[in-house]
Design a protein that fits this description.
alpha+beta; single chain
Length: 112
């Protein structure tokens, strides 16, 4: 179940899980025009999502390097962040995802 907002031409330009007021109308989640809108939205934002995924991996690697070098303590993070970091690390180990950062090189030197 979804609510959509349409422009003057009748094309969906926004969606929400709840009615946000004037101009928002209910649409079935399996309606073709709604599925087309979602598919187009995903395609348009694919480069950003891929970039976000890659950046998240770099940040995970950076955090690991800083902890390994004693420049940061894992306990410096709030409990919720610790939980997320542990979860991501276990997921990457299970999937055998290697680090984005080349661990054979000095990370900070490679930035110069």
């Amino acid at each position: 179940m979804a609510y959509v907002f349409k422009n003057a031409q009748g094309n969906i330009v926004g969606n929400s899980s709840e009615n946000l007021g004037d101009g928002w109308e209910f649409i079935e989640g399996d309606a073709k025009e709604y599925l087309d809108y979602l598919e187009n939205s995903l395609a348009e934002n694919a480069p950003f999502r891929e970039s976000d995924i890659q950046l998240a991996r770099v940040l995970e690697d950076l955090i690991s390097i800083l902890i390994d070098r004693g420049m940061l303590r894992f306990t410096d993070f709030p409990p919720a962040a610790q939980k997320r970091l542990n979860y991501r690390q276990s997921m990457r180990k299970k999937n055998r995802l290697s680090g984005i950062v080349d661990e054979s090189r000095d990370f900070f030197t490679s930035l110069l």
